[in-house]
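Tip: read the tokens left to right.
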């Protein structure tokens, strides 16, 4: 069999501030011949995610940094092309952490088979993938329940739009914020948020106070900084915060200047819980059953911003920090 040629994206220098295309290289490689107990997969979709920015820094965080000169990794959905194990057959659809490349060879334990009834398959990177699961775990962690008033930042993105819809399914009042008028319309008309406002026009605190005159019970934080500061002001006594992400500071070269009002944690007896979705993989089947059920019943809608071609993956990634996506940003591989 002739060797499979595959293109992959490598990190060649560490970004300072906002990443640029010069930090990356698109390289063509040839795969090694397939060995026993190995599976050859062609990626159909790959994910770009804000957390990847942290892995481009030199410092170790909760996961090690990406190595310079090596291909990036991340979530992907692919089709099995050839298999030397009973566990997978050609045509199977699998998720993996071998994104940022067109083809790869893996051991069966590094692949997760997905059902194909729900289409498009890119949903397994979004609502039924790790961003959807992040939303689900976050709401569970702070026990979001009927009649809670829930405020979500980064609401029109992958995690936020699923978190808001799941909170609506639980009977909450849901308020979201995002960075454009088309995203506000998406939140209200498509995702069913009760209130939504554009954080880029005017004071976040004033807009949040006006959307939630009686305060909020839960803040789902995807952004940090000033958004967290506004939420700390508006949270009710015994309110809860899900510390999911802080995208406002991922490209920052200085420490964040907000929040200034952390003492509210004490005076209002607030609870703040951090979450890393990969700690919850034992609950993946439960998540897929519950949230897959909502998708199939039409109770939860999934939207993706799809960019085509591995040569567009870097600009799709940078686009996350420019607000270019509505719903999950995914790259379709040709
Ligand atoms: N803890 C975990 O395990 C876990 C897992 C997945 C994701 N996360 C976190 O969850 C958050 C959302 O991730 P996602 O995958 O769903 O990404 P996403 O929301 O789909 O995409 C990023 C969005 O963030 C907004 N944004 C970018 N820069 C911003 C800024 N400076 N201030 C405010 N908003 C900004 C943009 O929308 P606008 O147009 O609205 O600005 C952009 O579209 C991130 O913080 C991510 O790190 C955490």
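Filled-in amino acids:
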């Amino acid at each position: 069999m002739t060797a499979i040629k595959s293109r992959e994206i490598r990190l060649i220098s560490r970004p300072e501030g906002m990443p640029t295309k010069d930090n990356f290289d698109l390289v063509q490689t040839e795969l090694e011949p397939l060995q026993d107990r190995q599976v050859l997969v062609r990626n159909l979709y790959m994910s770009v995610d804000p957390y990847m920015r942290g892995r481009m820094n030199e410092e170790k965080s909760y996961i090690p940094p990406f190595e310079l000169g090596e291909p990036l990794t991340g979530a992907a959905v692919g089709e099995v092309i050839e298999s030397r194990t009973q566990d997978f057959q050609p045509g199977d659809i699998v998720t993996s952490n071998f994104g940022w490349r067109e083809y790869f060879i893996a051991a069966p334990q590094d692949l997760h088979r997905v059902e194909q009834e729900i289409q498009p398959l890119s949903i397994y990177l979004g609502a039924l993938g790790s961003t959807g699961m992040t939303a689900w775990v976050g709401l569970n962690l702070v026990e979001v329940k009927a009649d809670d008033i829930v405020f979500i930042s980064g609401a029109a993105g992958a995690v936020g739009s699923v978190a808001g819809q799941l909170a609506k399914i639980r009977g909450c009042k849901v308020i979201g914020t995002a960075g454009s008028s088309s995203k506000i319309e998406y939140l209200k008309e498509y995702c069913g948020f009760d209130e939504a406002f554009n954080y880029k026009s005017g004071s976040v605190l004033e807009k949040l106070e006006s959307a939630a005159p009686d305060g909020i019970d839960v803040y789902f934080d995807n952004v940090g900084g000033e958004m967290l500061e506004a939420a700390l002001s508006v949270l009710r006594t015994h309110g809860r915060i899900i510390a999911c992400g802080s995208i406002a500071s991922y490209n920052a070269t200085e420490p964040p200047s907000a929040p200034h009002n952390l003492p509210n944690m004490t005076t209002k007896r607030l609870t703040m819980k951090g979450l890393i979705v990969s700690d919850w993989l034992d609950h993946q089947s439960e998540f897929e059953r519950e949230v897959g059920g909502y998708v199939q019943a039409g109770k939860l809608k999934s939207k993706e911003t799809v960019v085509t071609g591995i040569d567009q993956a870097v600009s799709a990634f940078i686009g996350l920090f420019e607000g270019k996506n509505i719903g999950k940003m995914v790259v379709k591989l040709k």
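The mean pLDDT is 97. The chain is about 25% helix and 25% strand.
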